[in-house]
Design goal:
Number of strands: 4
Mean pLDDT: 91
Structural class: mainly beta
Number of helices: 1
Low-confidence stretches: none
Helix content: under 10%
Largest sheet: 4 strands, mixed
Strand content: 15-25%
Length: about 70
């Protein structure tokens, strides 16, 4: 499966992604982000999505420290 992007959602599951890169400003309205089954180790980059309501990021390598920073 490929990457699916629309005005409110990004789905990039099983794409071997290792970090959440900064995206163009037009994606700041994203409310749903599916990033499961990748190689992500840091949640840095999520702050660029101020309207984010749903995050699926299971089966990655995110540290407990990064989760605490998001609380």
């Amino acid at each position: 499966s490929g990457v699916v992007v629309d005005s409110k959602k990004i789905s990039a599951v099983e794409r071997l992604i290792n970090e959440i890169d900064e995206l163009p400003a037009k994606y700041q309205g994203i409310e749903t982000l599916f990033l499961s089954n990748n190689c992500i180790s840091s949640l840095r980059g999520l702050t660029q999505f101020p309207k984010l309501r749903v995050l699926s990021i299971g089966n990655n390598n995110v540290s407990n420290d990064d989760w605490m920073l998001m609380l």
